[in-house]
Amino acid sequence: MASGRDVRDMLGLPMGVDAQKSAVQKRAKAAAPVRRIQGVAREVAALYGERPPPVAVYEEKKAYRAKRQNQGPAKKWVQQPFVNQARVDGLILKHWRRKPTIAPPVQDGEDAPMEEGDNVEPYIENSGDFLKYSIQVDLPTFTDEEYDAYLRSDDWSREETDYLFEVVKDYSYRWAVIWDRYDYQPANKSHLTQETVNGDASQALATLPFAPPKQRTVEDLKARFYHISAKLMKLRIPEMQMDAEQYTLYETLSKFNPELEGNRKLLAAALMNRSMDEVKEEEFLLAELQRINMAANRLDAEREELRARLEHPSANQQVSAGLASFTSSQALQALFSQLFAQDRSKKRASGGATGPSRISLNTNDLIQTPSSANAQLSAAARRQSMATNQSAQTPVRTLSPQQEYRYNVSTHDRLTSGVTFGSDKLLKMRQAKSNVQTQKIAAALAELGVSEVISLPTIKVAEVFEQLIGKVGKLLDVRKVREKEEGESRVLEQMKQRRSSEVQNGDASMSNGTSVEPQAKHEVPDSQEQTPGLDGEGEADDDDNDNDGDGDAHGDGDGEVDADAEGEEDDEDAEGEEDSRVPSETLSRAASTAHKRSASVLSQGSIQSSKRARK
Amino acid sequence: MNTLNSSTAPAAGEYAGDEVSAIVLDPGYSTIRAGFAGEDVPKSVCPSFYGQIEDSSQYLFGENAIHTPASNLQIKNYWGSDGIVEDWDTAAKVWEYAITSRLTGARAGDPARNGLNDDPKQENGEATDVDMETIENQEKPLEESPLLMTEPGWNPTKAREKAIEIAMEEWGTPAFYLQKTGVLAAFASGKASGIIIDVGASHTSVTPVLDGMVLKKGVQKSPLAGNFVSNQIRLGFKQSQPEIPLTPHYLVKSKTPVDAGSPAQAIYKTFSVPPTDSFRHYQEERVLTEYKESVVEIWPGPGRLSNGTNEEIAKSMPGRPFEMPDGWNQVFGVDRFRAAEGLFDASAALTDDANPRPKDEHTLPRLVQAAVQHVDADQRPLLLQNIVVTGGSTLLYKFGDRLNYEINAIYPSTRNKLIAPGPVVERKYAAWIGGSILASLGSFHQLWISRKEYEEHGANIVEKRCR
Ligand SMILES: Nc1ncnc2c1ncn2[C@@H]1O[C@H](COP(=O)(O)OP(=O)(O)OP(=O)(O)O)[C@@H](O)[C@H]1O
Ligand SMILES: [Mg+2]
After folding, report:
1. Cα distance between the two ends of chain A
2. Residue pair B446/A131 in contact by the 8 Å Cβ criterion
3. Would you say B140 and B172 are in contact if contact means Cβ atoms under 8 Å apart?
4. Shortest Cα distance, chain B CAs vs residue A8, angstroms
5. Pairwise CA distance, residues B74 & B278, whole Å
6. What distance in Å separates the CA atoms of residue A307 and residue A302, rounded to the nearest whole number?
7. How many angstroms separate the CA atoms of B239 and B232, rounded?
8. Contacts with A133 (C-beta within 8 Å, 6 or more apart), sequence order
9. Per residue in B82-114, is it b (16+ CB within 10 Å) or e — as a string?
10. Which segments within A522-570 are labelled E, that is strand?
11. Closest to B148 (Cα-Cα) out of B283, B27, B304
12. Residue B308 and residue B129: Cα distance in Å, rounded?
C-alpha cells in the first residue's frame, strides 16, 4: 500500500536509506513461501486453493505494540483552520494539530503563534510548509516589437506561438504531454464569439488565418520553441558574453534539428515494433557474428604463429619494403641522416646552390621529429665523435657500392667496442638456444659439408653463412611441424581405415571423397590449405625449401622433388629464390650442391609418407 | 528549469501527509467507493445499482436494500454503457448515499443526544438503513470536507462540469478536484508514469500516464470487461447440452444435495407478484460473479486457447466444481477457459443473435498496442516498464500470466513489466487508494478548486485546473 516510498517515487525524489531498507524487506517478504492466513483453520485455508480469497481476509496480528506512554493528562488536539500560502484565493481548510497547553515561544512553523484562550476569535494558521513544492517554470518572454523584429515565421502565427508558450508553461516542458494536449484551433468558434462581441466580425475574420489547423509533431513544437528561445537568449546576452553553461545551452537550442530527431524517433519506433521473429533473428545473427569473429581471430592467430615460424628477418628488407618499413624511430633516424648526407654532398657538388636541387630535407624539417635534434647535434659534432655517435659515420665521400665492395668498406648501425674476430661471429651463429638445436644445426652443416672452421671469415662469408644458418633453422622448424602433422594425419588415416573397413567395401570409392570431413571438423581453419593433399601443409613447406636449394641449380632437374612441387608457387618460393641468388659465387657452387642433397635427404621421409598417405 | 534538488534525501516528515479530512469518491459501474483520504481502504463501498419501486420516486440504495425481493422493485444503474454517467440526478443521490451513510453521517450535535454516547447495542443498524429523511434534513452533506472525485480518461467536459456542480451546489463542498482513475491507480502502485490497464465491470480502459498526466490521445477503451465475461458465461450456460440452469439465491427456499450434473432438487419460493426481470438479472449477476471468482480461468499462454494443442491441454487439466444456489452442481472442464478468452481473442468469444462477435480492436492486446502507438516514441519503453493492472476483473485467475504473454508477444524487444498488486483490495480499489494518497498530501492543497474559484469562474474551471 501507499507509503512514504510511493510518495517519493511519485514525486520523482530519490529513495532514502530507509526506502532501500524497506525495499529489501519487501523483497524478502515476497520471496517467502505462500503466506499463511492466520486466524483461519488450516482446513479452511486449504479451500482457497492457489487463488486469492475473493473476500479480503484481514489478519488480526498479535504484533508488538508500543506501550502507551502515560505522561500526564491526555494531550488535546484541535482541528486547526489554515490557509495555504501557495494559494491566492485564501481557501481555508482544517487539519489536526496539537493544541498547545502553554503559550509557546514565538517560532516559525505551522502551529507556532497561538492565541491564549479558546474564545478569542479563531486563529487561522498561515501554512507555508508546502510552498517549496509550488514550482513555477521559467519561460523566455518577448515583447511585440521583438516578435515582429526577430521571431516571425511563415509557418507559425503569433497566436499559435503564444499558445505554444502557454502550453509549454502549463505542462512544464514535458514535451510528450505537450504534444499530446496540443490542440490549437486558429478559428475557434467559442473563442471567436467571445472576441467579436464588441469588435465587428468581419475584421476579426480578416485577421484570422484560414489555414486548417496543422498536425504538428513534437519536433515541430520543439523546433519552434527552441528557435525562439535561442534567438531571445542571443538578444539578451550577446554570444560573446555567455558563460560556458549558457553557451552550451545556446548551442543545443540553436542546433536542434527536427528532421534528425524525427528520423531518430522513427528508427526507435521501428526498433521497438520488431516482431518476435526479427528479434530472434537479430539475436541469432549477433551470436553468429560473434562466433565468426572468434573463429577469424583464432585463424589469424594461427596464421600469425605459422608465419612467425617461417619468416626470418632479412637484413635489407627494410629498405626494399619502402616507406612502410620506417616504423621505428631508429630506422627513421637512419633515413634522415642518410638523406641529410645526400643533401649535403649534392650541395657541395652544385657549389652550394640550394633551391631546386635541394632534395626535400632541410634542418627545419628535421626539427619536427624528436630525432631531428639528435641529427642536428650529430651533424655539428660529426667530426669529433664519429666512433661514438651512431649516426655520425657519414663518410666524407660517398662510395658507390662497387667501390665499397672493392675497398671492403662497410657501414654499421652500431659498433661494439673493442676488436672482434670474424670467426667468432661465425661460431656464435652456430649456437642455438637449446643444446639439441645446436647439435641439429651442426649435423645439418656437417651434412652440407661446411667445415667447422671457415678459413676466410670475411664479411661476405659471414653474411652468406648467416643466411644459411637462418635457412637451416627454418628447415628444422618446418621439419618439426611436419612431423607433428604427419603424426596427426597418421592417426586420422588409421581412423579412416577403421571406419571404412566398418562401412564395408561397397562404398569404398565414396569414402575417398568423404573422408576429409571428419578431419575438416577437427581443424576447420586449416581445411583450405589441406585441399591439395592430405598433409599439404608439411609438403608445401618442404617444397619451399626444396626450391631454395634448387634455385641456383635449376637445370639439374631434380625429378623427385619437382614432381612433388607441382603447382606450388608461393611468394615465399620466389623470395627464397631471390635470396639464394644474392650470395656471391664463392660459396654458391658448393652450397647449391649441398643444398640439393640435403633437401632431397630431408624431403625423402616426407615424400614417402605423403605417398603413403595418398594411397 | 528549476526542479527540486534530487540529490538530497528528504527530511523525515517532509512527506507526512497533511490531512484535511478530504473525501475521496470513486464511482464505478459496479460499486461506488468512498472514504476519507489518508486511509488505506474505502470505508464505504456500495453498489451502483439502485432499486426503484415502479411508478414512484422511492429509491432504495445500498447493499442491504436492493437484494430483498419486493414486488415492482426495478434494479437500475445510473451509468451509461460507455463509462459516462447517464442519469445524473440519481447518480448524485447514490453518491451522496455512499458518502453520508458511512462517512459523514449526521451532523455532530449535542454529545448527549447525538447517539454516540448511547448504549452501544442500539447504535448499530442506523448506518445502512435507507433513511432519506436524515439525508434530506442535512442541508449540505459535505460542508466540512473537500472532495476528490475520480473520472474515466475520456470523460467529456459536460460530465466534468456536472460533477463539480453537484459537489459545489448540492453538497456544499469547500474544495473540489477531479482526477482520472488511471493516474490514481498508477499512484496507488507508486508510479507516476506507466500504462494502466483497468478491467472493470462495464468497460476496459488502457491509459498511458506520463508524470501523473494522462496522455489523452493514447487512452483506449472497450466494452469487453466484467459484464462481458458475465454474458459469456450466460451464453455458455445456455449453449451447453443440456442447458445449465441459472437460479439466483432468492428463488431457493431449501435444497438437497444432488449428484454432479443431475437436476436440482430444491424447494423454490413463490411470490404472489414475481419480482421484476431487472431484479432477477441483478441477482443472477451475483451468482455469475461468484462463478467468475471461483471457476473461470484464463488460458495463461503461450498462444491462445485455440492455438494448436492448447485446447487439448486445457481439457486434460483438472476441472473445477461449482454449485448453483439450488444445489445443481458440476465440474467445469475446458468450458471455464472459454468464458474469458474473448477478452484476448475476439474470435474465441461465444456469440448469438443478441451478442455479436466483439471487435478485434477491443481485445486487450490490441488496446495496449493502440495506446502505446499514440505515445511519443521516446516514452514507450518507459511506459512498458510500468504496466499497472487494476480493476476487479483482472482478478480472474491467470489473468496476469496471459496479459504478460500477450504483451511480450507484441513487444518482444522491450522490457515489459506488469505491476499487479497481489492483495484483492489493492486491485479492486486502486483508483480510490491513489486518490487517498493524493488528497492527503500537503502539496496537493494548492490544487484544490475552491468554492471561491468556482463561483468566480464557473463550472468550466475544471477544464483548466484538472487536466
Ligand atoms: N475475484 C474476481 N474474479 C473475477 N471477477 C471479479 C472478481 N471480483 C470482482 N470481479 C468483477 O469485477 C467487476 C468489478 O470491478 P470494478 O470494481 O473494478 O469495476 P468498476 O470500477 O465498478 O466498473 P467500471 O470500472 O467499469 O466503472 C465486476 O464485473 C465483477 O464481476
Ligand atoms: Mg473502475
Report:
1. 83
2. no
3. yes
4. 8
5. 6
6. 9
7. 10
8. A11, A86, B4, B443
9. ebebeeeebbbbbbbbbbbbbbbbeeeeeeeee
10. none
11. B27
12. 55
Q: Check A87 against B377: CB less than 8 A apart.
A: no
Residue B288 CA: nearest ligand 1 atom is: 31
Q: Which helix (H) or strand (E) holds B332?
A: strand B329-332
Q: Please enumerate in sequence order all residues whose Cβ is within 8 A of that of B427, keeping only pairs 6 or more positions apart, or say none.
A: B389, B390, B391, B392, B394, B395, B420, B421
Give the other-Cβ count within 10 Å of B172's Cβ.
16
Cα B109 from Cα B115, distance rounded (Å)? 9
- Rounded to whole angstroms, how far apart are CA atoms B208 and B222? 15
pLDDT (tens digit per residue) in A224-269: 999 999 988 888 888 788 888 888 888 888 888 889 999 999 998 8
Q: Residue B31: phi, psi to the nearest 5?
A: -135, 160
If you average pLDDT over residues B89-115, what whole number do you get?
A: 76
The span from the first CA to the last CA of chain B, in angstroms, equals 21
Collapsed DSSP state (helix, strand, coil) of residue B110: coil
Burial of residue A117 (number of CB atoms within 10 Å: 0-12, 13-18, 19+): exposed
A583 SS3 class: coil
Question: Is residue A96 less than 8 Å (CB to CB) from chain B?
Answer: yes
Q: Compute the distance between CA of residue A394 and CA of residue A28 in angstroms, rounded to an integer.
A: 82
Q: CA B388, CA B403: separation in Å to the nearest integer?
A: 11
Measured from the CB, is residue B30 less than 6 Å from ligand 1? yes
Bridge partners, residue A81, by sequence = A94
**A-B contacts at Cβ under 8 angstroms:** 176
Specify whether the CB–CB gap between A217 and A262 falls below 8 A.
yes
Angle at B164 (CA atoms; ends B162, B165), nearest 5 degrees = 60
Establish whether residue B31 lines the binding site of ligand 1, counting it when its CB lies within 6 angstroms of any ligand atom. yes
Q: How far is A102 from chain B (nearest CA, A)?
A: 24
Name the DSSP letter for residue B103: I
- Length of chain A (residues): 615
Q: Measured between alpha carbons, how far is B19 from B436 in angstroms, rounded to an integer?
A: 10
DSSP 3-state assignment of A96? Answer: strand
Asked if B209 and B197 count as a contact pair (C-beta separation under 8 A), the reply is: no
Other Cβ atoms less than 10 A from the Cβ of B32: the count is 24
C-alpha distances in angstroms, A225 versus A155, A171, A219, A231, B318? 13, 14, 10, 10, 63
Report the predicted TM-score, pTM, of the whole model to 2 decimal places. 0.63
Q: Nine-digit cell at A295?
A: 573463429
Residue type, A443: A
Task: Give me the sheet containing B31-36, strands edge to edge.
Answer: B44-47, B31-36, B23-27, B147-151, B175-180, B449-450
CA A487-A492-A495 angle, 5° bins: 130
User: Strand pairing of B147-151 and B73-77?
Assistant: unpaired
- Give the lowest-confidence range in A232-236, A444-448, A470-474, B108-112: B108-112
Give the distance (Å) from ligand 1 centre to CA of residue B392. Answer: 3
pLDDT digits (tens, 9 = 90+) for B320-346: 999 999 999 999 988 889 999 999 999
Identity (one letter) of the amino acid at A288? E
Interface touch A269/B413, C-beta < 8 Å: no
Which residue's entry shows cell 631546386? A356
Cα B428 to ligand 1 centroid, rounded to whole Å? 7
User: Is B33 near ligand 1, meaning CB less than 6 Å away?
Assistant: no
A362 — pLDDT class (breaks 50, 70, 90): very low
For A:137-176, CB contacts with B below 8 A are 137-138, 170-176
Q: How big is chain B by its Cα radius of gyration, in Å?
A: 24
Q: Name A510's Cβ contacts closer than 8 Å, sequence gap at least 6.
A: none
C-alpha cell at B397: 485467475
Contact A129 B442 (CB under 8 A): yes
Neighbour-count burial of A486, counting CB atoms closer than 10 A to its CB (0-12 exposed, 13-18 middle, 19+ buried) = buried
